[in-house]
Amino acid sequence: MSYKSNSLKQLALQKFRKNFWGVFSFYFLILVGLVSIFAYVVAPDNSRYANQMHLSIHSKKPGFKVTMLTIPSQFKTEQNTLSKLFFGKKNADTEVPISEYRIDDEVLVYREYATDGLEGVVKTLQVKSFPHEDVSSFIEEKSFLFGTDKYGRDLLSRVLVGARISFFIGFVAVFISLLIGVLMGSLAGYFGGRVDAIIMWLINVTWSIPTLLLVIAITLALGKGFWQVFIAVGLTMWVEVARVVRGQIISAKEMQYVTAARALGFSDFRIISKHILPNIMAPVIVISAANFAAAILIESGLSFLGIGAQPPMASWGAMIKDHYNYIILGKPYLAIIPGLCIMSLVMAFMLIGNALRDALDVKT
Fold first, then answer.
1. What PANTHER family does the record point to (predicted)?
2. Predicted TM-score (pTM) of this structure
């Protein structure tokens, strides 16, 4: 005899599975998360920040191919496997786009790649400069699926590596906002009175300041950088969580199970953490999904303004900032591709938020 659980958790999970766009967004976010973690494994340019520049092939269209000569460096870089996997390869070798080459008497003669019908400079290199005599192994045809940016960097690699910032800022910002928002909202809703008045005053003051200006102020106070942006965005998003938690606790603290917990002599901390919060987390989960999307947009805006992730770190917002003027120069894909990435990631979080709202709605 099989037993089918009719718990609220199981019912919510069943309703979520029936939502096509919610399930699709869930798997899409898992894919983006895996790409973010292992970006340097799948990126064609696995150098740190995918920052291998080739100015002679800048702003090339998607699908561009060129012959690339790799000149080994005399300096050895020591790096372990985990560092290469998660932070990219410290590449000291020099890559040179070439149009033709030949080997004459232990001398490699090659012509550098040039655009607009120009002829590149002819240069020579001793074959003994390479670790072994098979020079052809250092010459290969490279394809740029998304083309190259204005510095000649592989745009696909920059997009893949840039996904890490946009994806993980959502997690860090939501974690900080939940940590502060749930604490402040719980204190305000449960104790009321003067505690509620003080916390609500703080919430209203924080909410009255435009989000972008507040983030800019916090970022300037903490300094420009990667983690500073994460913290700044998180510190500005807790007010919405606090208001939701406060309202839910005000309603829940009059329920019979809370009265029974008080009669049993449980502490206020246990009543809030063990009895009230588990029963009001549904709307908090939904607003957290919306905050994911908001954090991504705020970070992109900060990077566009030059306050977010600093060069040479890859960021979708910074990529749009570097190439937005190319929209009118006949190469709009340089700004449109990272823009579509931001749009798709934000849309996925919004769709999964809507699916969670429908699944956790007890009235349906």
1. D,D-DIPEPTIDE TRANSPORT SYSTEM PERMEASE PROTEIN DDPC-RELATED, OLIGOPEPTIDE TRANSPORT SYSTEM PERMEASE PROTEIN APPC
2. 0.85
